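Page 42, continued from yesterday. The earlier attempt failed because a stray header line got pasted into the input along with the sequence. Redoing it now with the clean sequence only.
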Amino acid sequence: MELSVFALRPPFYTRSARAADGRRDPETGHRIDAFATRLVPVAPTGFNDHRPTGSRMFNSRLHGVYYTDAALVPGGAVEGYWLLRRAARLDDAVHTAGTRVETRHGPWTFDGELAVQSGRYGGLDHRASLVHSGGSHATTLPGRLKLGAAFNLGSGDDDPADRIHGTFDQLYPLGHAYYGYMDLFALQNLRNAEVTVEAALPRRTTLRVALQDFALAAPATDAWYDVGGAVVHRAAGAPASAHVGNEVDVTLRLPAGPVGLEIGYGRFFGGAYLRDADFSEDTADFFYLQTLVAF
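This time it went through. C-alpha cells are written below.
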C-alpha cells in the first residue's frame, strides 16, 4: 500500500491515502493528486473492520483532489484542493475548497491559506471557513535566531438556532504541532495568534520558545474545543469574554550521537473567559521528557 501524507499549514487535517494520480511535470512544476480513502478503526481485542463506532473521524470517508503549482510564485508554490468528508449514518457531507500560497525570499518565508466549507453536518446546512497567514525570518544574530509569527482563524457558529452549522470542521487534525503543545485547542471557533523564537545552541542543541494567544470566534454561542474536537466548555448563551488565555511552550532538544533527549515545558494562563465561566483553576502546567533514537 502506498501512503501519501499531506499536512497543510495550518494543517487542520492530515490524510493518509492511496494516490490515484500523483504526477508532476518536471518542466512546469505541476502536480495533481486524487484520492479516495476510508479509515479503519483499530479494535485492540478483535479484527479491524468498518463497523460503526459513532465517531465522525473513524466512520467517515475522505475523498479529494490536491493540485500544486511550483511555477506560479517565485521561490514557492501555489496549492489548490477540494476535499469531501462523508459519514452517511451521521448525515455528514462536508465539502472543503481552499488554496494555499507559500514563498521564500532570502531569509524570509511567507505563507497563507484560505478555505471555505459547505454541505451538511449532522443534517444541518454547513457553512464555515478557515484563514491562516504566517511568516518567519532567519536572522544572522548569534545562535542563528529564527523569528516567526502566525494568525489562524477557524469559524464558529454564531447562531445555533438558524439551522446552519458554522463551526469549522477540522477533518483529521494535526493540532498538536500548531496550536500549543498542551493540546487545549482545536481550529474550531478559534482565533489564534502565535509568536515563536528558535535558536541553535552549541553541540547541535536547539531551543524553541512559543507564545500562543487564544480567543473564541463566537464565545457566547459556540464552544471551546480541545485538540480532538471535544467540547471543553460551552457558555450556553451566557455573556462571556472571547479571550480564553495564553500559553508559553519551551522545548529544548539535546542530541548526543544516536541517542538524544527532548525536554518540553508548557504553562497556560487563563483569560477573562475562564473567569466569566467560573473555572475553579485558571492555570495549567505541562512537562515531558522524550528520548530520541536515530538509526
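Notes: The chain has a mean pLDDT of 86.
Reminder to self: strip header lines before submitting.
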